Each structure stands twice: as structure tokens, then as C-alpha cells.
Amino acid sequence: MAGRRTRHAVVAVLGAALVTTGATGCGGSVAATSATSGVPASLTSSGTPPSSPDVPTAVPAGQPTPADVPPEGAFDPVLALMVQRLDTADTVAAAKWVTQQPVTDPAREAVVLAAAPARAEQVGADLDYVTAVFGDQITANKQAQQQILDGWTAGSGTPPTTAPDLATQVRPVLDRITTDLVPALAAVQDYRDDSGCAKFLADDVASVPPPASDAGRAALPTAVAHLCDG
């Protein structure tokens, strides 16, 4: 139940961030804010050392330590790779339109969901975290593909007449993104438990260039749903 509440909070905050990004253009940004804990002075007001220099100042209950708070832009590498992945949805949808293949490809999904945990073991990333996030990438890409296909079905835009070669045009890109995304996730996985994670993530979403298509932008909240799921 806590995980669902967290994901709902992330989606809600990101929705607002994406609206802000759309209003300001791809270059628009929302400045990230961060809370800094007070640093105890090394000297007292009289200029003499404190009586107990070896006793650390207590952090108020519930306040995250500086090490647990994401720095500004911490999620940028992850988000940039997610955007690149969503930008492949147009090409994949074109291939499926021409060949009349379904959006869901269980065999290909199994390959991705096997490769990501294997890569996680190599770089020391949390297996459950990586698996959940990559499941979101698959769902988000299918969401974008379906929106594109539905648009062509409804007469919006000009549908393709030639199928792109997914084996040479898309899958190498996806494989490279998998290789890069897993260590990027390892770098942010400890921030997912921070109470302000969704806000920090939304700030970073607003500062990163969004997916190129409307379908990709609509699917981005799905792609990031588990990033702050502590």
C-alpha cells in the first residue's frame, strides 16, 4: 500500500512538472530546492572550542541526512536515458503498423527483463529496483506506441508505408540504453527512501529535455513511476 501511495505521489508531482515544462518549452526548468541541515560551528561564540567536540549534533527525528538527499540534477542521467528510450516508440510503432504486429512482444520483453538484472549484478545495483524500473520502461514504451497507433487509426497524421528494421535500427539502441541505465539507477537507488524524493525528481524532470513526441511525453510519468518507490 505504501508503494502505491508513493507511485501516485510521483505521478501527481510529475504531472505538474510536465505541465510547467510544456509551458516554458523544452529548455524550461524549475529550480531544484534542497534542504540543508545545520552544521555545528567548530567554535563557540566566544571563540573557544566547545566543551564536547567529539559529540555530534543530533539530526532531528525524521529529517534526512545530507547523504540521503538527492543533489540537484541527480536523476538527470536516468531521465535522459528514459527519454531516449521513449523516443524509439515512433519507430517501433511504425514497424508494427506496417507489419500489423501487436504492441506487446512477450519474447522481446523477456530479453529486456533478463538483461537488466544481469547487468545489475555486474554493477551492484538493487535487483528489485532495477527490475521494477525496467518493467516501467516496457510499459511506458508500449503506452506511447499505442497512442501513436491510435492516432494513425483515427486519421491523425500520415501513417508509414514502409516498416523500419527493428533489429538494426532500434534494438541496438535499446541494448545500449539498458547497459547505461542500470548503473545510472545504481547511482540514485539510495534516494528512493527520502521523503522528498518525488519533489527532487519532479524538479529534475522539469529541467531535462522531454521526449520528442506527445505520446512520449504522456508516457514519461509511467517510465519514472518506481524511481521514488522506497
Q: What descriptors fit this protein?
A:
230 residues; mainly alpha; Chorismate Mutase Domain, subunit A; 58% helix; globular; disordered N terminus
Oligomer: single chain
Strand content: under 5%
Number of helices: 9
- The CATH topology of the domain at 75-191 and 210-223: Chorismate Mutase Domain, subunit A
Q: Look at the structure and name the CATH superfamily of the domain at 75-191 and 210-223.
A: Chorismate mutase
Taken from the alpha-carbon principal axes, the silhouette is: globular
Report, as a whole number of angstroms, the end-to-end distance.
12 Å
The counted number of beta strands is: 0
Q: Could you name the ranges where pLDDT drops below 50 across 5 or more consecutive residues? A: 1-6, 19-62
Top-tier CATH class of the domain at 75-191 and 210-223? Mainly Alpha
What is the CA-atom radius of gyration, in angstroms?
21 Å
Report the biggest beta sheet as strand number plus sense, adding barrel if it closes: none
Structural class: mainly alpha
GO molecular function, one term: chorismate mutase activity
Signal peptide: 1-25
Enzyme class: isomerase
Region (Disordered): 33-65
